Amino acid sequence: MECCRAHHIIAIVSLVLILSPVVVHGWGIDGHLTICRIAQSRLSESAAAAVKVLLPASAGDDLGSECSWADRVKFHYHWSSSLHFIDTPDNLCAYQYTRDCKDEYGVQGRCVAGAINNYTSQLLSYGNAASQYNLTEALLFLSHFIGDIHQPLHVGFTSDKGGNTIDVHWYTRKTVLHHVWDDSIIMTSEDRSYNSNVDGLIDAIKKNITGEWADQVQTWEDCSGNQTACPDIYASEGIKAACDWAYKDDYFQSRVPIVNLRLAQGGVRLAATLNRHVPRTV
Ligand SMILES: *[C@@H]1O[C@H](CO)[C@@H](O)[C@H](O)[C@H]1NC(C)=O
Ligand SMILES: *[C@@H]1O[C@H](CO)[C@@H](O)[C@H](O)[C@H]1NC(C)=O
Ligand SMILES: *[C@@H]1O[C@H](CO)[C@@H](O)[C@H](O)[C@H]1NC(C)=O
Ligand SMILES: *[C@@H]1O[C@H](CO)[C@@H](O)[C@H](O)[C@H]1NC(C)=O
Ligand SMILES: [Zn+2]
What is the pLDDT of residues 109-150, one digit of tens each? Predict the structure, then answer.
């Protein structure tokens, strides 16, 4: 089983790399799935009801199954491609909304932090019949972008496009640093520790959210004052983690804990963001 699954993954990854020479942004499918499954298990009753209403029928009430929707529509909704990441100044290891949250043309607010604010405020109109927004899309974008902002290299240096231009070896394969953090670390850790099964990883992270990390969860959820959402906190953590962990030479097993922590925080915060706003309007 393990051998075949591994070959299967390599085959798929190679195919994807061949088919998409362009920059790929975002946790891979399993990273996003993990964050959305964790989040959905933590929703308040009214937020869960809203999510159920907004999800397309094909999702079968599983937010995880639609968590990579935003990556699938990136080429069709071309305007959305700059909403998956933030480029910060090289080697500064710090993020500022007004300086860094813009697209390649310099349009303010067009980055993953701006998008999280945007789609969270659109969801505030849930239950308001006159809403001008497609709230299904708002939910799917928000769920994906809260995931992306927790991938350390989604808030990375400008000149290397968040590690997309840095060639590395992952065991026997050649890839780029960005892809290692999107996919490779998660896939290798699934193969080694969870029988190649993403559910095993999700369960292990959930167990740590209620055990090992229980005393931090409240701080992860915090979004003080009357802010709609708190993406600037997550982005600042992200560029710091990228500098501390990703832009380094010695690798492998030592990176698994930071990936697991970011997946946990993403899941907890997606639930907290939805819980904070959706119930008020139901
Ligand atoms: C906000 O959402 C609308 C509707 O999807 C979209 O057209 C716009 O580009 C978004 N802007 C940002 C910064 O997310
Ligand atoms: C809202 O967006 C979804 C996903 O793109 C689409 O399937 C649906 O038709 C849209 N709804 C409306 C009312 O436009
Ligand atoms: C859960 O926490 C334990 C104890 O710190 C750690 O050894 C383990 O790797 C963690 N698992 C995950 C999935 O984060
Ligand atoms: C939040 O907004 C309410 C009403 O707009 C206001 O009374 C309250 O002081 C605000 N709280 C903070 C912490 O800004
Ligand atoms: Zn993405």
Answer: 999 999 999 999 999 999 888 889 999 999 999 999 999 999
For residue 74, give every residue at least 6 positions away whose Cβ sits within 8 Å of its Cβ, in sequence order, or none: 25, 80, 81, 84
Q: pLDDT at position 136, please? A: 97
Task: Tell me which ligand sits closest to the C-alpha of residue 67.
Answer: 5
Let me know if 169 is exposed, middle or buried by CB neighbors in 10 A (0-12, 13-18, 19+).
exposed
Determine the structural domain holding residue 24 and report its residue range: 16-281
Model pLDDT for residues 207-224, shown as the tens digit of each residue: 999 999 999 999 999 998
Measured from the Cα of 224, ligand 4's closest atom is 13
pLDDT at position 251: 60
Q: Ligand 3: which residue has its CA nearest to atom 12?
A: 205
Closest of 184, 11, 265 to residue 192, by C-alpha = 184
Ligand 3 atom at minimum distance from 212 CA = 2
Helix, strand, or coil here: 191?
A: helix
Tell me the C-alpha distance between 151 and 32, whole Å: 10
The answer to whether residue 117 is domain-embedded is yes
User: Is 2 part of any domain?
Assistant: no
Which protein residue has the closest C-alpha to ligand 4 atom 4?
Answer: 226
Protein residue with least CA distance to atom 4, ligand 3? 212
Total domains in the fold of the chain: 1
| 168 bridge partner residues | 175
Spatial separation of the C-alpha atoms in residues 231 and 101, rounded to whole Å: 11
Q: What is the CATH number of the domain that holds 46?
A: 1.10.575.10
Mean pLDDT of the chain: 88
Say if ligand 4 is within 6 A of residue 60 CB. Answer: no
Residue 150 lies in a domain: yes
Q: State pLDDT tens for residues 72-110.
A: 999 999 999 999 999 999 999 999 999 999 999 999 999
